[in-house]
Amino acid sequence: MKITGFRLGLLSAPLRVPFRTALREVSHVHDIVVELHTADGAVGRGEAPPTAAVTGETLGSIEAALRGHICPALVGKEVASLEELCSAISQSIVGNTSAKAAAEMAVWDLYAQQCNLPLYKLLGGGRTTLTTDITISVNDPETMERDTVDALSKDYDTLKIKVGENPALDLARLRAVRAAAPEAIIRIDANQAWTPRQAVRLLDNMQSEGLNIELVEQPVKARDLEGLQFVTDHSPVPVMADESMFSPLDAMTILQRHAADYVNIKLMKCGGLSNALKILSAAEVYGVECMIGCMLEAKVSVTAAVHLACAKGAITRVDLDGPALCSADPVDGGAIFCGKHIQLTDAPGLGIHGISGLRYLDGTPIAI
Ligand code: MG
């Protein structure tokens, strides 16, 4: 079965409330969807969000990379040659990790459909359920306390608290969240906002006040591996690398230096499932647990991440709340998101049947 063509579309979904981190503020999910078509009518789907602050990619750059470089490298190739397809994606253009991740999930979707297996089974997995945390955006302490109460009322028991925007407020933020959620698991994400010494000081203060922080994600600048290692060596809170780790090579460097205690794998950073599997293998060798994370994504790409997480035991923490943050779900099929519970079905591939309201792109530049 050959890939005969592709279509690109724009998927839009409003967020329940604006999403704020130390890096950005967003009110809608607007993602590029890629469809790969075969001669016998099968469709493989993938999705990529524009996360310019992290991967450098915009809607326009994702569309251009897929239309001009990545998808043309796939047309005419056999779906059965999975490795050849993945390497064609990898070699079609440098960088552009989210665009590549979208194309790769479409390829894996088709391949698993052809095998008549759900993707998680193709990857060797046995579990079909996950429990995700929920993200609390960075705001003033009162707003974050209110958002915490709201999350607990929806039965979430693990909270990922964004901090780092005006770090002087971070202790007060965590005090407010902990007071509202005495039993919850609280992990925090500074999104590169702190200096290494500031991070250690803040984390020392949090733990000595009994705020009981499970881990801190990306306390320092992405490229400051020395700083990341300094925090890992001196902080009472375990450290997770996020923006510091894109590629399998980044992962190897961090693992070999023990620059972090955990790593956060996101398909959009590493360029797709193939590289995520390489990172997972390296982490297993080093005995390092992984989190599976997502950007602000709708359900196509998060479903691919769910399949991966259900297949790999090294993924011990799940931060796949993208679909839960949207107030509408245009995707028919895929993983089922119900509060903190995520469930897979045994439909072949990603299990996605269609996307309502998908605006197909005809090649003219996107205007949003
Ligand atoms: Mg993060």
Give an overview of the whole structure.
There is one protein chain. The protein is an alpha/beta fold and 368 residues long. It has 14 helices and 17 strands. β11, α13 and β12 form a beta-alpha-beta unit. α3 runs antiparallel to α4 (97-115), α6 packs parallel to α7 and α8 (196-208) packs parallel to α9. The protein is globular, with a radius of gyration of 20 Å. The chain binds magnesium ion. Magnesium ion (MG) is lined by residues 189, 191, 217-218, 242, 264.
Which helices and strands appear, and what pairs or packs with what?
Blueprint: E1 3-20, E2 25-38, E3 43-48, H1 52-55, H2 59-70, H3 82-92, H4 97-115, H5 119-122, E4 129-131, E5 134-136, H6 141-153, E6 158-162, H7 170-180, E7 185-189, H8 196-208, E8 213-217, H9 225-234, E9 239-241, H10 248-257, E10 262-265, H11 267-270, H12 273-286, E11 290-293, H13 299-311, E12 315-319, H14 322-325, E13 331-333, E14 336-338, E15 341-343, E16 352-355, E17 359-360
Parallel strand pairs: 5-6, 6-7, 7-8, 8-9, 9-10, 10-11, 11-12
Antiparallel strand pairs: 1-2, 1-17, 2-3, 4-15, 13-16, 14-15
Helix pairs in contact: 2-4, 3-4, 6-7, 8-9, 10-12
Bound molecules: magnesium ion.
Keywords:
Enolase-like, domain 1, 2 domains, alpha/beta, TIM Barrel, eight-stranded parallel β-sheet, binds magnesium ion, 368 residues, 39% helix, 17 strands
